[in-house]
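Renewal narrative, Specific Aim 1. Our central claim is that a sequence can be written position by position from structural information alone. The example that follows is taken directly from our test logs and has not been curated for this report. It begins with the structure tokens describing the chain, in the order in which they were read.
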């Protein structure tokens, strides 16, 4: 493929979501990245929340945390470039430690991952001895290492139901835990500040934590009411990191990949995604016949750190290499591998 053909493909794909002058600039950078990844035997993984010009130009694979984790575990490339946030790149290193893993940003953190520490998990285990710990994949490696099994938003219910236990600790997303508790019929408590175990008179089967995604916590039921008043036939899809009230008021709730498949498989006058807004643009580019409404208060500042420019620099300089101490990696790998096995 020549650069001119590549540029025309990007214009055709992105013309309805990215200004044309920007496409020219981005296409030149993407062209260089695609040449360099072949030279260096690299694979590029792109999360569904990447900006459209990146998402539709350089990744070899795109998807959600679970799908990309599977690919990271199986790739035979020498370098994994993870266009996502730090916990995702750490997961790739956990699963494929012999590969060089690059994160194209100095930090690219996550408000949810930073809401809990490994010490917090150890303290919860001490308060609730013998209760298995399910940890959302949106956590750092040292937290995963203290867990029995990880989960994603797509398989959280299946993971909880796979455990031979009446009670589970589910960390750290308060809203995802609440949504899973409703799906599984469990009563949930949030003992974040407890210094002793829960009141024995309480009826509970799930123990949660007060962590939230700074993007998903902003969506409200009133947002849904307002949108439906203007677009009565709109189909509203909410990520499970939204509050249980928002999920209940929506038409569909699932992982990012399941949302994409739902839109592909259905016909509606309009669709509205209650999640990171770059994903709506990515769907609009891939499915221009679908009318995607926008409700974007803020792009995820952490996902937004990943740019085409920094991805090129990361490949050129082998910059921002992800390392996970082996003792932590081995323990975290058990929890992540169990998540992948459950699917």
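The sequence written for that structure reads:
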């Amino acid at each position: 493929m020549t650069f001119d053909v590549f540029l025309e493909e990007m214009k055709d794909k992105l013309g309805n979501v990215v200004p044309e002058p920007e496409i020219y600039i981005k296409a030149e950078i993407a062209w260089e990245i695609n040449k360099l990844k072949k030279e260096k035997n690299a694979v590029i993984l792109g999360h569904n929340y990447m900006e459209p010009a990146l998402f539709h130009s350089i990744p070899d694979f795109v998807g959600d945390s679970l799908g990309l984790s599977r690919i990271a575990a199986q790739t035979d490339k020498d370098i994994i470039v993870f266009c996502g946030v730090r916990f995702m790149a750490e997961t790739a290193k956990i699963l494929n430690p012999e590969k060089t893993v690059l994160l194209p940003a100095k930090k690219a953190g996550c408000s949810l991952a930073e809401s809990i520490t490994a010490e917090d998990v150890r303290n919860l285990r001490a308060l609730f001895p013998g209760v298995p710990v399910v940890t959302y994949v949106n956590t750092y490696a040292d937290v995963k290492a203290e867990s029995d099994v990880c989960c994603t938003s797509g398989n959280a219910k299946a993971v909880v139901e796979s455990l031979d236990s009446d009670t589970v600790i589910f960390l750290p997303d308060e809203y995802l835990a609440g949504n899973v508790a409703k799906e599984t019929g469990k009563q949930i408590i949030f003992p974040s500040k407890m210094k002793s175990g829960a009141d024995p008179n309480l009826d509970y089967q799930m123990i949660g934590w007060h962590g939230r995604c700074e993007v998903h916590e902003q969506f409200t039921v009133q947002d849904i009411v307002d949108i439906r008043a203007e677009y009565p036939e709109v189909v509203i899809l909410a990520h499970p990191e939204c509050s249980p009230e928002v999920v209940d008021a929506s038409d569909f709730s699932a992982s990012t990949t399941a949302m994409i498949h739902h839109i592909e498989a259905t016909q509606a006058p309009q669709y509205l995604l209650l999640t990171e807004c770059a994903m709506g643009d990515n769907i609009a580019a891939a499915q221009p016949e679908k009318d995607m409404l926008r409700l974007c208060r803020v792009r995820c500042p952490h996902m937004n750190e990943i740019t085409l420019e920094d991805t090129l620099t990361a490949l050129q300089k082998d910059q921002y290499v992800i390392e996970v101490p082996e003792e932590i990696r081995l323990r975290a790998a058990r929890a992540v591998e169990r998540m992948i096995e459950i699917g």
